Amino acid sequence: MDGHFSDFLIIGAGMAGLACATELIHAGAEVAVLDKGRGPGGRMAARRVEIGGAVVSFDHGAQYFTARDPAFRETVAAWQAAGVVARWRAAGEDAWVGVPGMNAPIRMMATSEGRPLDVRWGVRAERLMRDGARWLVETGDASFGAAKVLVAVPAEQAKVLLAEVAPALCALAGSVESAPCWAVMAGFAERLPAAADTFRSATAPISWAARNSAKPGRGGDETWVIHASPARSREIVDWPKDEAARALLADFFAATGIPTAVPIHSDAHRWLYAFPEPLAGEGARFDPETGIGIAGDYLHSPRIEGAWLSGRALAGLVLAAG
User: Fold this and answer.
1) Which of 122, 232, 263, 269 could form a Cys-Cys staple with 205, CB 3.0–4.6 A?
2) Residue 228 and residue 179: Cα distance in Å, rounded?
3) Is the Cβ–Cβ distance between 75 and 308 less than 8 Å?
């Protein structure tokens, strides 16, 4: 038994979980956060690799975000003032990216008033159970206790975690279907003859590609991130990543018309729950009787802003419940 007890235990330190944690901490609550990842990011993850003796960061998840809600726009302005985001007009006039990687805002959110949050990285929540007046979250080699548990992970993962203790929330999360996305990270010895830094298609096997090295604050001579379409990703969802990378690079050159070039670095990552079909009108859900809540972009909109708004909404519901 870890012996750690808090007012709130949040499972998931992505945008939704940390937005929720920030609001609760500002209200004076004691909050602990668990995340199975090795560090901040979630779908805003950045992958650091060495290419030709230089360390390069790839944004292999979310490529950029927009800010439309007034409260989120204020938050983005604060991030800009802190130097952790910048505009990237190659993706649109209202496109923003983290600097020097997409996970920079998440790293900033993992602090509160300059003090690190109690975030346990590399800790996977495996089971949620009741222990008298509190909840216990088992993680394999430790347990964490809390009066209330807030689950901010993809719907498919939330469904599994909530199956034994919150049937209604489990059913809600279970009604969501998410499309996968294979992402390829490629580095080239010479600049590819592509006039634009981005490529989009609603019909090609490649739905998005971006010259990662053209983003503000990035390094690397010529690096690209390539996202397969949902249909193509489903088609090859179980392929080994090396085979997926080769196939999607071929798709990329065919779709863009760029002459085929052999990369000096190539890797791939499979996002199983990349694009959820959101439950419109939910925002977040909290059950005061059980003390369990859920948040995530699947409850609002499948965007970074949607995840932030969902996490903030969950904090509001929790604080209103007292």
Assistant:
1) 232
2) 11
3) yes
Measuring CA to CA, how many Å separate 168 from each of 78, 159, 165?
37, 10, 9
Q: Is the pTM of this model over 0.85?
A: yes
Shared domain check, 191 and 314? no
**Phi, psi torsion values for 310, nearest 5 degrees:** -65, -45
Angle (nearest 5°) at CA 138 between 311 and 135: 65
- Position 54 pLDDT exceeds 90: no
Q: If DSSP codes are grouped into helix, strand and coil, which group holds residue 57? A: strand
- Regarding whether 171 and 182 lie in a shared domain, the answer is no
Residues 6+ apart with CB under 8 A from 10: 17, 20, 21, 31, 32, 33, 34, 149, 150, 151, 152
Structure tokens at 37: 């990842």
d(CA 121, CA 267) in angstroms, rounded, equals 24
Structural domain of 97: 49-102+178-276
Please give the tally of structural domains in the chain: 2
Structure tokens at 82: 């802190």
Dist. CA 141–CA 17, nearest whole Å: 23
Given a cut of 80, whether residue 2 has pLDDT beyond it is no
What is the mean predicted confidence (pLDDT) over 237-255? 98
